[in-house]
């Protein structure tokens, strides 16, 4: 894949889990990266990026930008040919879903894409959406044509009161396509990853993925884990998908980027061979009736969610990402071991 280096590119949410790997790959290819961050003077938070830049062919420049401030990305976007919009909150426990999830996701997307529409140099925008813009619960897979999720499907079951994160990603992606349809100056390509796993570049990653894996090493899941159906993708493979979406001439539309159809228990079991003797990783499943009974009290999991996800297979078609973006997916075991080892090295668990 040819990655042009004559013009800069913008990455929003530059300190994020996925953004870090995108920036790393761009810098190593020799690209000038404009990194949009809240506080460009926070040297400690940006150190992992500046260290990568120092060892790479490319150039890194930081720009102060606020997701909800209109026009905030204009300076950072000036002269850029490609915009990677990765900035969006990923958290499952919020007090005010409208304020904490919907507004940042939708209004932030609107701000970035409207700025792109008014910036002549921008020719392509890659938005990091999510598979949850396609589905809410694993049971939605069974309801899909052929029992498999595809890019043609949109999430119709999430709402402000049920799985608001999924709702926020759905509404944000719809807003992106709405603006793109009226903006002939650039082409929009969306990446729809499943749960992202694998090592982070920042010292203190905040993605919800690390909260899930943390429970597999701190004893929370020592009695077992539920078979909650989901898909997973390694963050490094996901970064390569973003670059292909930005620089391949034929990249268009939505792309499910998911390496494996699996469940929470299988994620835990992938760690047994290497870590089972020293850490309390889950080895068996928690019965659905027990999750249904105790989930709301212990983990805040709704019984509707348990009914629709536990012991329900998750299936998605990733063929478009493989054929149109050229993505190859590394083994789940490799991704989980690399992620778990990083958490061990960071002192997340006690033996």
TrEMBL record:
Gene3D superfamilies: NAD(P)-binding Rossmann-like Domain. The keyword Oxidoreductase applies. InterPro entries: Epimerase_deHydtase, NAD(P)-bd_dom_sf, NAD(P)_dehydrat-like. Residues 9-255 form the NAD-dependent epimerase/dehydratase domain. Keywords: Oxidoreductase. Belongs to the NAD(P)-dependent epimerase/dehydratase family. Dihydroflavonol-4-reductase subfamily. This is Dihydroflavonol-4-reductase. It comes from Roseibium denhamense. The lineage of its organism: Bacteria, Pseudomonadati, Pseudomonadota, Alphaproteobacteria, Hyphomicrobiales.
């Amino acid at each position: 894949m040819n990655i042009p280096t004559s013009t800069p590119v913008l990455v929003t949410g530059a300190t994020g889990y996925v953004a870090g790997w995108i920036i790393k790959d761009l810098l190593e290819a020799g690209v000038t990266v404009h990194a949009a961050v809240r506080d460009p003077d926070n040297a400690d938070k940006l150190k992992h990026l500046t260290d990568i830049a120092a060892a790479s062919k490319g150039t890194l420049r930081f720009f102060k930008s606020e997701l909800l401030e209109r026009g905030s990305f204009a300076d950072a976007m000036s002269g850029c040919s490609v915009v990677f919009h990765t900035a969006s909150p990923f958290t499952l426990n919020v007090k005010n879903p409208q304020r904490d999830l919907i507004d940042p996701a939708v209004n932030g997307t609107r701000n970035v894409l409207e700025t792109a529409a008014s910036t002549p140099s921008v020719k392509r925008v890659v938005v990091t959406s999510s598979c949850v813009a396609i589905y809410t619960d694993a049971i939605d897979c069974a309801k899909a044509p052929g029992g498999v999720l595809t890019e043609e499907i949109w999430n119709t079951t999430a709402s402000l009161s049920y799985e608001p994160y999924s709702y926020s990603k759905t509404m944000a992606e719809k807003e992106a396509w709405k603006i793109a349809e009226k903006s002939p100056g650039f082409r929009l390509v969306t990446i729809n990853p499943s749960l992202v796993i694998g090592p982070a570049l920042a010292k203190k990653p905040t993605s919800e993925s690390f909260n899930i894996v943390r429970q597999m090493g701190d004893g929370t899941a020592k009695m077992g884990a539920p078979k909650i159906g989901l898909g997973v993708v390694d963050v490094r493979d996901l970064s390569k998908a973003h670059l292909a979406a930005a620089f391949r001439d034929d990249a268009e539309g939505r792309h499910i980027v998911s390496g494996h159809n699996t469940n929470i228990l299988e994620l835990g079991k992938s760690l047994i061979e290497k870590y089972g003797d020293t850490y309390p990783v889950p080895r068996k499943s928690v019965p659905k009736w027990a999750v249904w009974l105790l989930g709301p009290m212990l983990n805040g999991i709704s019984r509707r969610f348990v009914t629709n996800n536990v012991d329900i297979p998750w299936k998605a078609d990733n063929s478009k990402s493989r054929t149109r973006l050229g993505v190859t997916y590394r083994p789940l075991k490799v991704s989980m071991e690399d992620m778990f080892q990083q958490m061990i090295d960071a002192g997340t668990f006690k033996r």
